[in-house]
Write a structure and sequence with these properties.
alpha+beta; 16 helices; Protein Transport Mog1p, Chain A; Serine Threonine Protein Phosphatase 5, Tetratricopeptide repeat; 3 domains; eight-stranded antiparallel beta sheet
Length: about 475
C-alpha cells in the first residue's frame, strides 16, 4: 500500500512538472508573439498566436491580437470572424476594444453602417475610457463621411468636440473633403445601391475575384485549354512511343488505308480505287527509324529563359532553387516560412534596396518584406510599410496613393484596376513576364497608414485563385 502511494505521488509530480513545462513554453511563446506585434511584425506575431490557438482555441488574448493582425493584412473577412470569436471567448481580451477593432474591420469591408454600430457598442461598454471613446467617435465620423451622411458626421464630430476640441478639429480638417466628395456621389447614385448586401472578402479573395472578373476571365479559359492540350499531347506522345514503327517491307505487304466513311463527301472509298503503295528505289531506300523516334528536348538548360529579378527575387521561378540563389545574394531570408491562407507559405526577407518612394519611407514606423510560395513556385514578392501616427491620415493616404499611381503609370501605363474602398485604395498594372503589380494604401483610426506593394506571377495566381474561388 505504501509502495502504491509512493508511485502515485511520483506520477502526480511528473504530471505537474510536465504541465509547468508546457505552461512555461506557452508563456515564452506568448511573450515572443506580443513583442513581434509591438514592433509591427504582424505576420510573425500572427503565426505564433496561431500556435497558441491550436492548443487553446478559446484563448481570448490570442484571438484579440491575431484579429488585429488580420485587420492589418487587409483580410477583412478573417478579421471579422476572429474579432467575433474573441467577443465570445471567456476571458483574455478587453471587450470594449474588440468592438473598436471590429468597427475598423467593417470599415475596411465597406460596411459603414455596421461599423457605426460597433463603435457605439465600444462607447457603451467603456464610456470612461477617453482614448477608446475618441477613437470610436473618429470611426463614426469616417463611416458617416464615406456614406455621405452629413448629419451623422456632424453628430459624431460634435460629441468629439465636447471631449477634446483639438482632436475634433483634426478630424474635421482631415475628413471634410471626403464628406463633400461622398455627398456629391450619393446624390448622383441615389438610394438604389444603398440596400445592396455587403460581401466581405479577404485580401487574396478580393484580388482573386477582381482578377477573375476584370482580367483573367478570358485568360483563365486559355490557361485551362493550354493545360488540357498539353496533357492530351503528352498522352498522344506516350501512345506513339509504345507503337512499333513499321518497316518498308511491312508497308509493301499491307498498305495502310485510312478507314473513314468518305462516300458522303463524294470521294471514292479505298475499296473502289485501291492504292498501290510506293516503293523507294533500292539505292535510295532509307534506313528504318530507330525506336523510339528521337524528339527535341522540350527544355534545354541553355535555352531556359529566367525571369528578371524584383528586389533580388525572381517571381514565377521554382521556390527552393530561387530561395537558395536569393539567399546567397541577399543573405537575409528566413527559410523557416510562415503558413498563410489558401496554401501560401510566407518567407520574410530584407531586400538590398528599399523600393518604396522616399516620401513613404520618411514616415515609416516599420517595414516588412516577404516572399510567398505556392505549390513549389514563387507566387509573389511583397513589401509593406506602416507609418507613424499622422494627424491627416485620410489626406496622406489619398495623396500618397495618387502620387504612387502616377509614378507607376508613367512606367507601366494605365492601371487595369483602380478602386476606392473608403479607408483603402488599391490599383493594379499588368507587366511583362506574366506579372501583376498591386498597390494597396490603407488608413487606420490609430492615425497610421499602411502602404503595400506586391509583384505577382499572373499564371501562378490563376491557379491559386481557381483554388480560392471554386
Amino acid at each position: 500500500m505504501k509502495k502504491n502511494g509512493v508511485l502515485l505521488a511520483l506520477l502526480i509530480a511528473t504530471v505537474l512538472i510536465c504541465a509547468a513545462g508546457t505552461s512555461g513554453a506557452d508563456e515564452f511563446l506568448r511573450e515572443r508573439a506580443r513583442n513581434l506585434y509591438e514592433v509591427q511584425d504582424y505576420r510573425g506575431a500572427y503565426a505564433l498566436f496561431e500556435r497558441l490557438l491550436a492548443e487553446k482555441p478559446d484563448d481570448g488574448e490570442a484571438l484579440d491580437y491575431s484579429a488585429w493582425c488580420l485587420r492589418y493584412f487587409g483580410d477583412w473577412k478573417s478579421a471579422d470572424e476572429r474579432f467575433r470569436r474573441a467577443l465570445d471567448a471567456p476571458s483574455g481580451a478587453l471587450i470594449s476594444w474588440l468592438y473598436v477593432g471590429l468597427g475598423e474591420t467593417l470599415l475596411g469591408a465597406g460596411d459603414e453602417r455596421g461599423a457605426r454600430e460597433s463603435f457605439q457598442e465600444a462607447i457603451d461598454s467603456a464610456p470612461d475610457d477617453l482614448e477608446l471613446v475618441l477613437r470610436s467617435l473618429k470611426g463614426m465620423a469616417w463611416a458617416s463621411a464615406f456614406l455621405g451622411d452629413r448629419e451623422g458626421y456632424e453628430r459624431a464630430l460634435s460629441t468629439a468636440r465636447e471631449k477634446d476640441a483639438e482632436y475634433a478639429s483634426a478630424i474635421e480638417a482631415d475628413v471634410e473633403p471626403v464628406l463633400e466628395e461622398r455627398v456629391l456621389i450619393a446624390a448622383e447614385v441615389g438610394e438604389s445601391e444603398e440596400e445592396e448586401g455587403i460581401v466581405v472578402l479577404d485580401s487574396q479573395e478580393r484580388q482573386a475575384k477582381i482578377f477573375e472578373e476584370e482580367i483573367l476571365a478570358e485568360e483563365l479559359d486559355e490557361l485551362i485549354a493550354e493545360k488540357l492540350a498539353g496533357e492530351r499531347g503528352a498522352a498522344a506522345t506516350e501512345v506513339e512511343d509504345e507503337e512499333e514503327t513499321p518497316t518498308v517491307e511491312d508497308e509493301e505487304e499491307t498498305p495502310k488505308v485510312k478507314e473513314e466513311p468518305s462516300e458522303e463527301l463524294g470521294v471514292k472509298t479505298p475499296e473502289q480505287t485501291p492504292e498501290k503503295p510506293k516503293v523507294e528505289p533500292a539505292d535510295e531506300k532509307p534506313e528504318p527509324k530507330k525506336h523510339p523516334a528521337e524528339k527535341p528536348s522540350p527544355e534545354k538548360p541553355a535555352e531556359v529563359k529566367l525571369h528578371s529579378s524584383i528586389w533580388g527575387v525572381r517571381v514565377g521561378e521554382p521556390l527552393e532553387q530561387e530561395l537558395d540563389r536569393a539567399e546567397s545574394e541577399l543573405g537575409r531570408i528566413d527559410r523557416e516560412g510562415v503558413a498563410g491562407a489558401h496554401g501560401v507559405i510566407n518567407y520574410p526577407f530584407v531586400p538590398t534596396d528599399n523600393p518604396f518612394p522616399a516620401y513613404v519611407q520618411a514616415e515609416a514606423a516599420s517595414t516588412y518584406f516577404n516572399v510567398e510560395g505556392y505549390r513549389g513556385n514563387i507566387l509573389k514578392v511583397h513589401g509593406a510599410i506602416k507609418t507613424r501616427a499622422l494627424t491627416n491620415t485620410l489626406e496622406w493616404k489619398n495623396r500618397t496613393f495618387g502620387s504612387m499611381v502616377e509614378e507607376f503609370s508613367r512606367e507601366h501605363g494605365k492601371p487595369i484596376i483602380l478602386k476606392d474602398h473608403g479607408i483603402f485604395f488599391e490599383a493594379a498594372w499588368l507587366l511583362p513576364e506574366t506579372r501583376v503589380l498591386w498597390l494597396f494604401v490603407d488608413a487606420g483610426l490609430d492615425g497610421a497608414c499602411q502602404v503595400q506593394m506586391s509583384y505577382v506571377d499572373r499564371r501562378i495566381q490563376a491557379g491559386h485563385l481557381i483554388g480560392i474561388l471554386k
